[in-house]
Each structure stands twice: as structure tokens, then as C-alpha cells.
Description:
Elements: H1 4-15, E1 23-28, E2 36-42, E3 45-51, H2 62-71, E4 79-83, E5 88-92, H3 107-134, H4 145-161, H5 170-177, H6 181-190, E6 195-197, E7 206-209, E8 212-215, E9 222-224, H7 226-234, H8 243-254, H9 266-294, H10 304-316, H11 322-329
Amino acid sequence: MLTQDLLLDQTRARFAIPIDGDIRITPIEKGGSDRKFYRVRLGGRSLILVKYTAQKEENRHYVRIAGVLDALGVRTPKIYFHDEAQGLIWMEDLGERDLWSYRDADWPTRRGYYQSALEEVWRLHKRGWEGLSRFPFTLQTEFNAALYRWEQRYFFDHCIGGYFGNLQDPGRVARVANAPVWEAVAQKLSGWPRVLVHRDFQSQNILIHDGQAHLIDFQGLRPGLAHYDLASLLYDPYVHFTDPERTELLDFYLGLGRRQDLGPSRAQFDEIYRLCALQRLMQALGAYGYLGLVRERSEFLAHIPVALASLRQVAAAVPELAEFHALLAGLPA
Length: 333
């Protein structure tokens, strides 16, 4: 295990800093990640040091993906050094202000930052296949029917079963969880044209630097639907939106240009977007239950009420999910 002193020694060697040079390291708390983040101050400048493990295969691809995104014109932190043997990445420090930090700002301010974020993810969605052809790299498992079904089961296992388990009739939960509608949703989404998606496009994975959005935590990049990234951002349980604000930001994204994967009509786009919002919220709620109860990170349980309210709202707009919506309506707020 690398201690902070050893990490400082590694940094001194990489940046040719003398033993008596001014250098300090401070841990950074970062969500539910298995990676460890540090801010390293070198005199008057600073950088971010990431220590990752081989526990998740996707961690090894971060640096390669960062280079591809940079080549495609998508804003990300610059990579200074990568020691794959030690699982260490030294990268540009873009500051501490992520999009989540502006959650209480006035709407004109928030809107500008969200529009910047949408412009960056638009570039990823538009140019992603080009990047894959020019700079081949290993992708994570695509969003297919099996992955959508996994997200659905993850929700029923860790949110409904793990968190709300003693409040529900097991027979009713089993009937809803095994209803044919879930396979139908998975098949419908898996049949839609794919782009490359961020996979975890939410406010804490978007840094605001010099007034512009920069994407981070993109190691889960994979083929999927642009609608999923949009739903991840606009139904982010960490941030409150009004319905008009969501619509305004969706309109902005769609106004950036037409693409085949967005569908031939707004009605078809909205249908797929709602189903992606359903999937994303189920995935998030499953994660909160898992992290809160299995990993004993109880702070994640506090996000369940907001995400559940959004899931109720989305499910209410899908007639085929009436029984599912009734199950959600019976859960405590």
C-alpha cells in the first residue's frame, strides 16, 4: 500500500522536486469511487493525483480515454504522467468547483454552466465514433438489453429489497419485478442507435473552470444512448430542477444539431428519453441502497427520497408501468 509519504516521493521524482522543496498532499473525498484522490501543492501550483486499483477494469482506461476526448475537442483535465504499474495518475487541477457547487445559484447562472456541459457532451455524442476509429481503445460493455435488465434488477434487489424490504408484500414485489414490461423496455432501448456515452454524466462529474465545463470520471465510457446521459444530468438526485428548466435544457441540447440517434421526431425522442430516465433513476437508487447498506456508506441513503420522487414522476408518464407506479406510490416519501 502506498502511503502519503510514498506518494509525495513519487511526485518529487516525476516533477524533479528537491527533497527540501515545498510540497504538500491533501486527500479529497470523492463519492462512492474505489479510487483515492489527492490534491498535491507544489509551491505556487497544484495538481491532482489519483491512486486506482485493478478492482475495476475500467480504471485502467481513464488515461487512454482522456487522450481521445482531448483529441476530439472535449474539455477534460490534462494528463501529466501515468504510472500503470503503480496505478497512479497525475493530472491538471481544475479547481474545486463542480456543477453541483452551483446548485443554489440563480437560474441564469446555472443555465449557462449547464449549457456548457451539454455542449461538451454533445461533442462526445457527435464525434465519439470518430475517436474510436482514429484512436482505438478498449470500451466497457455496451448498453444492451442485458445491461438494462441488470440495472432494473439492481434497483429491485438493493432499493426495494434492501432498503424498503420490510415494508412491502414480497409476492407483490416479485410480480412487479418479473413483469414482462421490463424486458420490453430493455429491448426497445437496446434497439435504438448508439453513440458513445459518458455513463455517469451528473453534476459532480463536471468541473467548472474559467467559466467552462470540463468532464471527469469518464472511465465508464461505452456505446449507449445520448438520452441516458441527458437523463443522468437532468434527473440528477443531487440537484433540483423545475420541469420548465429541464425542458429548456433539453431544447438547448436538441438545438445544437440534428443526429439520427435522436430520432425522427420530438415525440420519439421524448419517449426514449423517459425510458432512459427510468433506467438511470433505477440504477441510482440501486446504487444508493448498495453503497448505503452493503458498503456501509450511510450518507448515500439520504439521496433516496429525491431520486424516488423523480422515479415516481417518470413512471407515471409511462402507461405500461401503472403497477410499478402503484408500488412506488406506496413507499414512504
